[in-house]
């Protein structure tokens, strides 16, 4: 495994990997960009080709190519390893441990289940899929399968493959019955759901067969498992992510058949939710590939509400949102099958900005102008408060004012009254006075780490290290030097960013050390002054005299430092 990791690092530069996700621009020896992990206007995300690392000063995430892919693709280390190995053209060679961990076993079981279901795709099921417009290539590419009507065929097969009952249940493939395991999926066309690396994590099964209960749900999804989190998984994401980046747009549909039809129609940037509403986590996953989302959910009342909820979550995640209006009574799969892929392409290309879409729908359904105004205030304005671009918001304010025949200032005033989330400051955070010295010390440490890493440092590193240790004291100096490597790496970046082009670097370093000494002395002065007052109150003249001499010495030393800084 270690050899594989090193081979990947040798073949892939961090700039090549990260530039596939974000637009990098050169900044001295480094590169910078707007961080893909949080919304920001000013670039605070830096990449060092020399060290093969990245760090964001806004959200404090950092690491190497593996941690980057883990974060941006929502994967564990082995998932990131799989993605990067494919990019590097390095074959994955796993060591065979005597005992695999729980996640490895579940991944292996779900892959076994996928093979089991695909091998049992019946002719009637295949005929149904083709009648819905799917060709053999789509069926093969998305690994569609079939679960028969027997109560425990799949579970017995998994047992034969040496998986335990607990593993079968934990993977969401069966449940415990009075006579043993009962298969979770029966009489269903099976759609494997994969994570970003293409590893199967769950299933969605569509009811199909002659002996099916009329009470059975049309679609049945895997339950929440250690691998399958509905709020974080989008069906088809693993196959759509490259197209999403290429076209700078994602298309969201409601179900598996809609997604398959859209992919077959040439829209490979399509994803779908899997048994849950669209969540902010889904929005964050998409935003790592593109800032633009087109929502194309069913055109009925439920679809409208689902589209509105999805749009709100997407806006809050910083996405630009449009909505594609489908003809009444047709979902995407039906539209493509009945009117052709050009009709689907036209629908997507004519999609409307979410605010315009809401205004159009509400205006058409409102009985009068007053009802329309109330609908705009209660439904549209909360959406408008989530729009990230102030220019776009102003444009929408103008649009709303024109439609309601009111002034723009009236709309702006109503918008300003919309409740907003409070700034997320921690209530137990230390006050600035208590953290200032620590912050100064970290700044001094960042300089030391940066200069130690340079082939030709600009200062005498040993002399600076000694002065720094004396300034903060041995205990704090040792604690700073013991910080985790990831935190030290962030500090290196920080110093290089702040001082890399400074013409007065040596003077700034000297000033910083003097400020640290002055603040340390001020801290001691405050303690000595408190002790003096307590001694005076207690009438202890001898102790008060000692504290008074300390106060005078510290005051004189601080005054001397003030004149030299």
Task: Describe what you observe in this structure.
With 565 residues, this protein is an alpha+beta fold. It folds into five domains: 2-88, Zinc finger, CHC2-typedomain (DNA Primase, Chain A, Alpha-Beta Complex), CATH 3.90.580; 102-228, DNA primase, catalytic core, N-terminal domain (DNA primase DNAg catalytic core, N-terminal domain); 237-350, 3-Layer(aba) Sandwich (Dna Topoisomerase Vi A Subunit, Chain: A, domain 2); 357-416; 433-564. It is 55% helix and 11% strand. It contains 25 helices and 16 strands. The strands form four sheets. Strands 1-2-3-4-5 form a five-stranded antiparallel β-sheet, with helices on both faces. A five-stranded mixed β-sheet has the order 13-12-14-15-16, sandwiched between helices. A four-stranded antiparallel β-sheet has the order 6-9-10-11, covered by helices on one side. β9 (188-194) and β10 (200-207) form a beta hairpin. The longest helix has 33 residues, at 505-537. The radius of gyration is 31 Å and the shape is globular. The protein starts with a helix and ends with a helix. The model is unreliable at 421-437 (pLDDT under 50).
